[in-house]
Amino acid sequence: MKRMMTYIRPYYGYMALTIVIKFIGTVMDLVIPYLISHMIDYVAPSVTREHLSPIFWWGGVMVLCAAVALVCNVSANWRTSRFASLVTRKLRGDLFDKILSLSAAQTDRLTVPSLVARMTSDTYTVNGMLGVIFRSGLRAPLLLIGGVALTLSIEPVLAMTMIAVLPPLGFFVTVISRKGIRLHRRKQKRVDTMVEKVRDSFTGIRVIKALSKIDREKDDFREVNETLSRSEEKAGIVTGLSNPVSSLVLNLGMTAVVALGAWRVFTGHTMPGQIIAFLSYFSIILNSTLGLSFVFNHLSRGAASIGRITEVLEEKEEMLLLPSREAVEGAPFLEFRNVSFSYDKKSTVLQDISFSLEKGQTLGILGGTGSGKSTLIALMLRFYDPDQGEILFEGRPLASCDPREVRGRLGVVFQNDFLMADTLEENILFTRSLSHPMVEKAALAAQALPFIEEKEGGFDYRLTTKGNNLSGGQRQRVLLSRAMASSPELLILDDAASALDYKTDAALRRAISEHYASAACVVVAQRVSSVKGANCILVLEGGRTVGQGTHEELLSECEIYREIARSQMGVTE
Fold first, then answer.
1. What would you measure as the largest C-alpha separation in the chain, in angstroms?
2. How many other C-beta atoms can be found within 10 angstroms of the C-beta atom of residue 297?
3. How far apart are CA 213 and CA 99, in angstroms?
4. Which end of the chain has fewer surrounding CB within 10 Å, N or C?
5. 511, 446 Cβ separation under 8 angstroms
6. pLDDT recorded at residue 336
7. In this predicted structure, what is the pLDDT of residue 47?
8. Pairing mode, if any, of strands 520-525 and 536-541?
9. 3 and 306 Cβ atoms separated by less than 8 Å
10. Calpha distance 529→546 (Å, rounded)
11. How many of the other CB atoms lie within 10 Å of CB of 165?
12. Is the domain of 435 the same as that of 550?
């Protein structure tokens, strides 16, 4: 909650005025029963047919109080809703910024589905909690305290009877609220699981249908859904107890008050108007207590969500930037020195990887599934820091280089990249300020220009979500165009030509060597034909380097590379 106060603090003045308005409206609500009591006990007995003006005068005062109460309460509620929206907007914006700044390791640990749930479900819960706290949470205590004070002034004996039920009521509400916070926190974790399941199912819907696994997916979803439903039901039952318990205790108190009040009227110790006012105040106290119970329910949910949001906001910076250094003249453009890495700091994914790459050179990376190729690319982009060894960029430790400056000089196509539901040109530009000739040049080099010109509207052709109205090869060529459009100094292609036929792949390699000859290039591939022209080929197996050299050197020295080449190209020596 301390973190939450930093978002509320800028609105102290705004909420102070709201509290004043709410206080005036609440006082007007409390005055009306008192006026009714006064009219019944003192005004009505003195009124005659010829002299009705006191009734109209006091009635006018009551109408005025009711009108002021209405205007003040509506105004205060509107201001509270606006306050809750402003705070939640700022909170959601900061949470989004923080998520984008998290390291890949932090994202892996928190998980994407959980982050999505915190951005949506949890912030929505916090918005509801703020609205309830500063709407009912301000009004209910004022009504409760004011009602108790006025009942004490009207009829102290009956008031003490009513006050006697408040301590046990407070005890029950406190116990229920504490239990509710734990249950709602557990429920939100179930929401994370639900989001993860839905996300996986929607992402893989084509595979699910192709393999006729829809029934299996339904069963898996039903299991996750039932688990969440049971968690919600348990949390709802516990937090829902506060209202009936409050009603039971307060209604028992009202029964005692009515019985005692009737006896006191009968014995002449209390006037009828006082009993009517007292019962009105008791109803106000009853409703305010139920309102407080409602506030505690929302507070339980909100506290759980605030805890989850705070966990993200208070994540410490892991990818620390070392003091900046000048580029070393004559140093390789990119160099790995004995780099080792593991995701969990236990199971090594890459071990003792070393190589260097100059501008104008191409590094090919070849290996089977799970050999560490994509992890190597992630280290180049500094999504992770190595456990051991050094990664140098122009002779400087990569950790000392501004990530924006380094990544601004790169062009990357990931193994699982994405396209937006926008035009082809906007997908290639990707919000960068590039000229149309640069876009055309990149599309030509990526072998995308021929099919783009055939589309209706050319570069203005609009893609659907994920580019599903393009073939796999067309999508990859658009992604290659995006990577090459800014004339990068380092071009990283992570299995970026897997969907291209051999002819198009060969044309792509020729175009890169012709148009981007000055750029360093890293090509991750499954095909020997995609990397055989590289200045250096790195062969990985189980995270280790089992071969390093040119195509000819590896054919003669690396058995694994020779076997891959023989199976793919029929090379025998």
1. 125
2. 25
3. 33
4. C
5. yes
6. 93
7. 63
8. unpaired
9. yes
10. 19
11. 21
12. yes
Low-confidence residues in the chain, pLDDT < 70: 1, 41-50, 52, 243, 266, 272-273, 570-573
What phi, psi does 522 have (nearest 5°)?
A: -115, 120
381 and 506 assigned to the same domain = yes
Which distant-in-sequence residues (6+ apart) come within 8 Å of 336 by Cβ?
A: 353, 354, 355, 356, 379, 389, 390, 391, 392
Q: What's the pLDDT at 41?
A: 67
Residue recorded with tokens 């020997």: 528
**Structure-token pair, residue 281:** 């105040």
Q: The whole model's pTM is what? A: 0.72
pLDDT, position 258: 72
Residue 7 belongs to domain spanning? 2-165+243-313
* Judgement on whether residues 277 and 338 belong to the same structural domain of the protein: no
Burial of 483 (0-12, 13-18, 19+ CB in 10 A): buried
Strand partners, 411: 491
Q: Quick one: CA dihedral 409, 413, 416, 418, positive or negative?
A: positive
Query: Do 293 and 405 fall within a single domain?
Result: no
Sequence letter at residue 537: I
Q: What is the CATH number of the domain that holds 522?
A: 3.40.50.300
State whether 274 and 401 are in the same domain.
Answer: no
Asked whether 491 and 521 are in contact (CB, 8 A), the reply is yes
Phi/psi at 414 (nearest 5 deg)?
-85, 165
State the total domains in the chain: 2
Q: Which residues pair with 335 in a beta bridge?
A: 356, 392
Residue with tokens 């916090």: 126
Residue type, 344: D
